[in-house]
Amino acid sequence: MKQQVGIEAIAVALPRRYIDLGDLARARGVDPAKYTQGLGGLEMSVAEPGEDTAALAASAVAKLLANRALDPSRIGMLVVGTETGVDHSKAVASYVQGMLRFPQSMRTFDCQHACYGGTAALNSVAEWIASGAGAGRVGIAVCSDIARYGLNTSGEPTQGAGAVAMLVSESPELLALDVGVSGTCSMDVHDFWRPLGRREAVVDGHYSIQCYLEAVSGSYRGWRARALGRDLIRSAEVPSEQLARIAYHVPFCKMAKKAHAQVRRCDIEDRTGKALDASAEAEETPRAAASFETQVAPSLGLSARVGNIYTGSLYLSLASLLHKEAALLTGKRIGLFSYGSGCVSEFFSGVVGPRAPTAINSAGLDRVLADRERIGVEEYTRILELPADRPLGTPPPPGAFRYAGTVDYRRSYARG
Ligand code: CAA
């Protein structure tokens, strides 16, 4: 097995427009504090019909290539994680390959399991390299999605859209993965799903939070046992505190806070062998809040301004964390938690690379946010009511891609 495998570089592509969640709350007659403090969001990306999953994915990969001056002939594998596919059969990865004129020698496919699809894509590429099958080549894992719950629903303030592309290689400048050290937890549940033919998700919101929390408990415990077995961490009162930071899947920012409290609860209850009683709970609550501020809050900046991007959400947290704190974190181990409704989840870890500050800088994340245009609720509503298959005809910005239309069931894309 190869010594080091992980994420060498990352790039993020977002729709060109966004809505302020305070504006949305006022239009819905809701106290804005419910969205900003109760759910933890500030803004939400809004995808127009031309900004479909394939176009966003290709735009993110194009940025990755440009930022790294990467020669496409070095890429042996391109895997897209998405739950917003554009065809029952044809992979988004094939569209991306076509848009970027990638070589035929590549292995290309999509991974689907709700928001976990991005982690399945990353694992596929990382394990291909770790096994030696990559034979010196690099791979790309892309997460691309559009989160839609529909107008005037309780899920409405937790939408978003965007793509995250990751270059995976034997030079993990951003994050060297602890390959083989992970915990998984899966169940057959109806917490959130997207029946064929529907654009909006069906969700049992509060139940979905319970499923997420049960999944994080199972996955974290599995990771902790393996990490202890490999001496990555040692037995302690709260073992999770040995992770410098933890990046979670973020359907809305408050969820990461709930998840983190749950991870700590697992640590404490497993040590004492009993559930927290009222007095232990009173002691733990401020500790969990303080630990959240240090271990988790630095990863939430982008999610608060982009919203949920399903498969890419965890990797937006990772990008956000490194953007804010790479210089503090080089050489330190961080935890990552991926959750896909239905459900499957995985807790895993990695060590931040020595060149992470430079590598994350080249992603230009401040510019990605600054380039967006704020729209009002009226325009947002108009966009959400547009048919998905009728692109706007707006030319894509330089280097980005847009869906251009369908003729004879064949989708085509334009490059700016
Ligand atoms: N000021 C401050 N806070 C306020 C407030 C106010 N005026 N009014 C309400 N709040 C708080 C509430 O106390 C609550 O906080 P706590 O959870 O800490 O108690 C929070 O705001 C939300 O309030 P509600 O629970 O009343 O909100 P809701 O019922 O309208 O819906 C939701 C919340 C269930 C998350 C809904 O937005 C939803 O269904 N979202 C989509 C599903 C989802 O994201 N699930 C997450 C797990 S599944 C997953 O992770 C996969 C995925 O990506 C979808």
Bound molecules: acetoacetyl-coenzyme A
At CATH level 3, the topology is Peroxisomal Thiolase, Chain A, domain 1
Strand pairing plus helix content: what structural class?
alpha/beta
Order of helices and strands: EEHHEHEHEHEEEEEHEHHHHEEHHEHEE
Helix content range of the residues, please?
25-40%
Which percent range describes the beta-strand content?
Answer: 15-25%
In CATH terms, what is the architecture? 3-Layer(aba) Sandwich
Give the distance, in angstroms, between the N- and C-terminal Cα atoms.
Answer: 41 Å
Rough outline: globular
What is the rounded Rg? 20 Å
Q: Give the class-level CATH name.
A: Alpha Beta
When the domains are counted, the total is 1
Low-confidence stretches: none
